[in-house]
Amino acid sequence: MVGVAGFPAWETSLTFPQDDLSKLRDQGLLRQLQTMPATGGCFVHEGRRWLNFSSNDYLNLVHHPTVAGAAREAIDRWGTGSTASRLMTGHLELHGELEQRLAAFLDVEGALLFGSGFLANVGTLTALAGPGDLILADKLNHASLIDGMRLSGARWLRYRHNDPEHLRELLGANPTDGRRIVVTDSVFSMDGDIAPLEAIATVAREFGALLVVDEAHAIGVQGEGGRGCCHGLVETLRPDIILGTFSKSLASYGGFVGCRRELRELLINRARTFIYSTALPPASVAAALAALGDLEANPGMAEALRQRATEFGQMLMERGLPLHCGESQILALMVGENEEAVALSSSLRDEALLATAVRPPTVPKGTARLRLSVTLAHEPEDLETGADLIATTWRRAATA
Ligand SMILES: Cc1ncc(COP(=O)(O)O)c(C=O)c1O
User: Fold this and answer.
1) Closest CA to 215 of 142, 312, 160
2) Is residue 5 part of a domain?
3) Can you give the CATH number for the domain in which 308 is found?
4) What tens digit of pLDDT does each residue of 95-142 get?
């Protein structure tokens, strides 16, 4: 086919996907879907016991009879979909009930559900900030926070990871007449370290900035009874917005915001990912409600998981593995090169152990790693077996 002068022929322009994919392959950055035989931290498949160290079902609730039963009952009563956005006709009693239970659990005035954690983050930042405002974000914040701040149209700057002094420096050097917003994860999803929230909140307050904290990996695990990292802060240092998701500890799907009543009202009116998106399906809401109920009834689960994660971190270190940080249930084993991380992950899969390789742009260049997460599905002997398998496979790869 001949192109119009100045334009490539249509067929030629279609080679771009292959070109782009080849580049990714050459850099060891090509991502491919891998079908998992089952879900959960441990499962039996074709007679073999699998250890999954890449599950975010931290409290081991996705197969819990109460949680799964609540989802089934919700489908029987409400059907499989909520049929419209909350502001149209999709707002069910269940949505309101989950928001109230969540607000009480987090000890905040109000909560608002979103279609996912990603949508909650994008919707919140785009609703709170706009041209003329300034957002200060931790260098390693989750992609959804980065996209939210980019889409908001506000000016944004990134401070060095977990460095409140750099945050203070940037706030001091960048005066603005607009709103200032400080945004951070509490538990960082790919490193597993925890933000120094007290110091960050102190700096934010000093400059009259709003504080937004993403507790996606903290709810259910950190803080008293799994209420998250922000819960232990004194009242004056509590964030203005807590972001979270039901897709990890709460064994379901959907995102949420916890905040003051009037901020919630504003988000209902301004957050486009809330306004223009269908309400969460009843089964997801019911499952989240049941998981939250289970966590409230068993507040020791969070501490038990933290304890298990500490033990696993120690096991990895005793075996000489390069553990990046051992502060939470997420542990990063630093590999460095992309191809090596993928090869290691693949060898472990051959041993029925799932440990996903994480590469740029999810993490900085040269810091490819295995991201390991401990869950309550892992019994102490699973942790020993896992640590042994990882250490043996690691050594075999190093001497190959
Ligand atoms: C820190 C953080 N925030 C937000 C999200 C998005 O949550 P969701 O999976 O519900 O979209 C994730 C992960 O997936 C995350 O790790």
Assistant:
1) 142
2) no
3) 3.90.1150.10
4) 999 999 999 999 999 999 999 999 999 999 999 999 999 999 999 999
For residues 216 and 240, state if they share a domain.
yes
Q: pLDDT tens digits, residue range 16-60? A: 889 999 999 998 889 999 888 889 999 999 899 999 999 999 999
Same domain, yes or no: 277 and 394: no
Q: Which of 232, 263, 297 is the last residue of a domain?
A: 297
- 23 vs 92: CA distance, rounded Å: 48
How confident is the prediction for the chain on average, in pLDDT? 95
Q: What gap in Å lies between CA 188 and CA 199, rounded to an integer?
A: 17
Q: How far apart are CA 268 and CA 263, in angstroms?
A: 9
Based on the fold, state whether residues 192 and 182 are members of the same structural domain: yes
Could you tell which of 188, 189, 221 is best to mutate to test the pocket of ligand 1, judged by most ligand atoms within 8 Å of the CB? 189
- Atom nearest to 121 CA in ligand 1: 4
Assess whether 105 and 226 both reside in one domain. Answer: yes
Residue nearest to atom 16 of ligand 1 (CA): 189
Enclosing domain of residue 232: 65-297
Å from CA of 286 to ligand 1 middle: 20
Q: Ligand 1 centroid to 8 CA: how many Å?
A: 40
* 148/264 same-domain check: yes
Would you state the pLDDT for residue 348? 97
Distance of alpha carbon 393 from alpha carbon 371, whole angstroms: 15
In a domain, 220, yes or no: yes
Report for 17-26, 70-79, 322-331: range of highest mean pLDDT: 70-79
Cis peptide bond prior to 361, omega within 30° of 0: yes
Q: Let me know if 189 is a catalytic residue.
A: yes
Q: How far is the CA of 177 from the centre of ligand 1 (A)?
A: 32
| 209 and 101 both lie in a single domain | yes
Q: What is the pLDDT of residue 2?
A: 57
Domain count, the chain: 2
Q: What's the pTM? A: 0.95
Paired strand residues for 42: 51
The arithmetic mean of pLDDT across residues 186-190, rounded, is 97
Beta bridge partners of 45: 48
At which of 270, 297, 324 does a domain end? 297
The length of the chain in residues reads 400
